[in-house]
Amino acid sequence: MLNIFQAIKSMYHMKIKFPMIGGVREAQANALQARKCYIEAIKREKKRGAEEPSETKDSNKRGKDPVASLEPDKETSAAVQPVEELLTIELTPSDPGKDLEGINPGVITYHLNLDPGAKRHIKEIQFPEWHSNVVLVPKPSGKLRMCIDSRDLNNACPKNFYPLHRIDQLVDSTSGCELLSMMDASEEYHQIMLAPEDHKRASFITSDGMFCYIAMPFRLKNAGATYQRLVDKIFRPQTGRNMEVYVDDMLVRSKEARKYVEDLEETFAVLREYKLKLNPEKCAFGVSGGRFLVFMVTQRGIEANPVNIKAILDMRPHTNINEVQRLTGRIAVLNRFISKSAEKVLPFFKTLRKVKNFEWTEECQQAFEELKAYLARLSLSVKLIPGDTHYLYLSSTSQAISSVLV
Fold first, then answer.
1. Of 197, 239, 370, 398, which is most buried, counting CB atoms within 10 Å of its CB?
2. Residues 197, 70: contact at Cβ < 8 Å?
């Protein structure tokens, strides 16, 4: 019959596809009905006196029925391993986070919070869990991070609009301090436990079988907002006083060197209380300056990160819209250091309007060369001191207007 219809079957997905007038049609089997048929077939084999494996006999000696454990309305026997297995993140001995215990679930737990309207869609697919593929994402250090391709799952989850802090305000508050301590959490997302009811939704396929996360995985929607909620909660007494936190980037700032040890002791007391582990490779203690977020903060003030400047200086004349968009994005990071930035980048935005007829004009090339020359001599941004007299400097042209406090 399959040959007559020229059908192609997939036992794993329980589907068949066959050509019809107007296109290819698809037939989906009923997973629940197939499961019942499978259970019934096992029972019939048992009645025929088929010889059971030794493991099954051992389980029957203990009074457990492995067949009954497959029934949807009965609990799974302890002697039979379920199809799903919980993934425990094993770190190498050289990894500083090998003994991660995780944040107490009573403090914070990650919930997927699936849209109720999407649950029906999940049932229509007739898969008991969300299945994702494994994706290896390169890290800046050159190592690989294992993630799951959770795009479909993310589409089914509403966005958590928990606010993130303004980067400019955080950086302004850190400049002018005598000593700084930059800290970074080790496998930060994996330190938050995943809600038990969501284990089956964070599953993924491997050659060794099906696994699921018991900790919050990377690349899930709202994972960053959940982590920000955690650090805001546990560091609330210190935030704005001697510490600034943006997701997993933590900075302890001591306005006076004599209070440095006291500030660190307070911070580490919180870390020990909530079992939050750090990555020593990304931590720096007792320094006068360093990189925080995308800026360089020192006692003198705020400087642009040389890496961000070099990224623009190394760029060549652009040949398509995507390259111009990449340029404007890199300029936005340095915007606070560029005087009359709107006027300097105006030719680039004019080019972006011509999506179909892209042209890198002489005006764009001249603006690009002038921008490179300007970035080579960027000035220092100084924190405003309360009580001092400041002036608002305005500059305007026929196409742009800008202002700065001096």
1. 239
2. no
- pLDDT score for 168: 84
- Eight-state DSSP code of residue 278: B
Tokens standing for 40?
């019934």
For the question of whether the overall pTM of this predicted structure is more than 0.85, the answer is no
How many angstroms separate the CA atoms of 377 and 340, rounded?
15
Q: How many residues does the chain have?
A: 406
- Cα–Cα distance, 315 to 322 (Å, whole number): 13
Task: Identify the residue whose tokens are 């993630």.
Answer: 147
CA distance 101 to 362: 59
Distance in angstroms (rounded) separating the CA atoms of residues 406 and 390: 6
- Which helix (H) or strand (E) segment holds residue 2: the answer is helix 2-5
- Distance from chain centroid for Cα 155: 15
The answer on pLDDT for 225 being more than 80 is yes
φ, ψ dihedrals at 157, nearest 5°: -105, 135
Crossing angle of the two packed helices 306-313 and 362-375, in degrees rounded to 10: 150
For residue 34, give the nearest of 10, 14, 7 by alpha carbon. Answer: 14
How far apart CA 187 and CA 102 sit, in angstroms, is: 10
Q: Residue 205 has what pLDDT? A: 77
Alpha-carbon distance 258 to 254, whole Å?
8
Residues 257-309 have pLDDT tens digits of 899 999 999 999 999 999 998 988 889 999 988 888 888 888 888 888 899 99
Among all chains, which residue has been given the structure tokens 């004019």? 350
Bridging pattern class, strands 131-138 and 203-206: parallel
Which tokens sit at 180? 């700084």
CA dist., res. 402 & res. 266, Å (int) = 42
